[in-house]
Design brief:
The complex is a heterodimer of chains A (110) and B (114). Chain A is mainly β and 110 residues long. Chain A is built from no helices and eleven strands. By secondary structure, chain B is an all-beta fold. The chains are: A mainly beta (110), B mainly beta (114).
């Protein structure tokens, strides 16, 4: 059974700092998704990476897929309070099934 | 489009009571799913459906039933609530793409079982 491990579990930083969160697996990902979840709401898809080594940018967020497709990272440049939330990675685990990581809870202080 | 809607937003039950969590989507997606979210455990798949009349079990199906009579609706039933079912429940609807899918989540139902 594929497991997704995310690190760190919690992160509290000051506005303007940079940060990186990680998603790792013992198995190869067919693809990997990153979500952000704000308090009291459901997760919202940020990006999907498919190809090993792929890099995608979404404003100040940079997503990277490892060459071997067993790890991924999310880097935020100049974090803002609006980036506060729970960041989840997810990967298909069969037809129509997804498994989710345990998440990184980020708090950006003004 | 309203997207994915869930009701109720909050619910408190006593052990042994039954209830139905409602989920509806107006995007005409065939695939829908139910997850539960517990602290430190991410989201875990309970049941899913690939179309009207077709459902299947996910990772943690025990204690839950589902049905899919229409494309729009996918209710989740708790037959006899237990404290272990205290959680936040999310319904999701999936848009299938050429190479990847996009899941749209509802706002969740926070359930407490006493």
């Amino acid at each position: 059974t594929q497991l997704l491990e995310q690190s760190p579990q919690f992160l509290s930083i000051q506005e303007g700092e940079n940060l990186t969160v990680y998603c790792n697996s013992s198995s190869v990902f067919s693809s990997l998704q990153w979500y952000r979840q704000e308090p009291g709401e459901g997760p919202v898809l940020l990006v999907t990476v498919v190809t090993g080594g792929e890099v995608k940018k979404l404003k100040r967020l940079t997503f990277q897929f490892g060459d071997a497709r067993k790890d991924s990272s999310l880097h935020i440049t100049a974090a803002q309070p609006g980036d506060t939330g729970l960041y989840l990675c997810a990967s298909p685990s069969g037809t129509y099934k997804y498994i989710f990581g345990t998440g990184t809870r980020l708090k950006v202080l003004a | 489009n309203a997207g994915v809607t869930q009701t109720p937003k909050f619910q408190v039950l006593k052990t042994g009571q039954s209830m139905t969590l409602q989920c509806a989507q107006d995007m005409n997606h065939e695939y829908m799913s139910w997850y539960r979210q517990d602290p430190g455990m991410g989201l875990r798949l309970i049941h899913y459906s690939v179309g009207a009349g077709i459902t299947d079990q996910g990772e943690v199906p025990n204690g839950y039933n589902v049905s899919r009579s229409t494309t729009e609706d996918f209710p989740l039933r708790l037959l006899s609530a237990a404290p272990s079912q205290t959680s936040v429940y999310f319904c999701a609807s999936t848009k299938q793409g050429a190479s990847t899918d996009t899941q749209y989540f509802g706002p969740g139902t926070r359930l407490t079982v006493l």
